[in-house]
Amino acid sequence: MPAFTWKSFLLLNDDHLCVACKNHLVKIERPICPTCGRAQSNDQLCQDCNRWNERSDSIKILVKNRSVYTYNELMKDVLARFKFRGDTALAELFQKDVQAAFKHSFCIKDPLLIPIPLSHERLKERGFNQSVLIASLLDKPILQPLVKIHQSKQSKKKKNERLDQKGLFQIKQTDAIVQRDIILVDDIYTTGATIYDAARILKDAGAKSVSSFTLIRS
């Protein structure tokens, strides 16, 4: 009997999602927060982004974030299997939606994709970086100049602890990012702390602009 994977469960045939699952993967549509891309009832800046704008170290750091899906119960389970249980084939299921959302969201001529890295310890534990897999779906130049400093898992921290985090990354090369339009790629945007910290170090290193693109906006 072939091994069970979520790809085999979600696929009906010919690389199409089964109708029941597809109807529960909710793509983000307007209105959204103009900065973080969160789905909401209006197109005004959300409370989280207002909070970021009140911080002197975060003003004009991130142009915008855009995401493909909202975070519901099905996506929570899919993400857990993709990210923590190693079912990397799931990335292929999102390729069409990821490419369409990216094309709709960004008109930058020559963007440089930078996946959010894992720490050496986390990468060894997991065996792959889910952000690199997502970035690879976009068929654009990818650079990995950031090094993640190992810390406790984000999911174990309270919201205020995440928002106050700094110094999550180091940068190992800068020449290739000077005066480039950077798009950070990650699996999920939650508080924005990870994205803002990475954007801050890239801007300090000479990036022309930094935006971000994630599979999910929680």
From TrEMBL:
The source's superkingdom equals Bacteria
Annotated Double zinc ribbon domain residues: 14-49
InterPro entries assigned:
ComF/GntX_DNA_util-trans, DZR_2, PRTase-like, PRTase_dom
Recorded hits in SUPFAM superfamilies, A to Z, give:
PRTase-like
Which residue range or ranges hold the Phosphoribosyltransferase domain? Answer: 147-217
- Spell out the Pfam families in the cross-references: DZR_2, Pribosyltran
Question: PANTHER family from the xrefs?
Answer: DNA UTILIZATION PROTEIN YHGH
Family in the record: Belongs to the ComF/GntX family.
Q: How is this protein named in the record?
A: Amidophosphoribosyltransferase
Organism in which the protein naturally occurs: Bacillus safensis
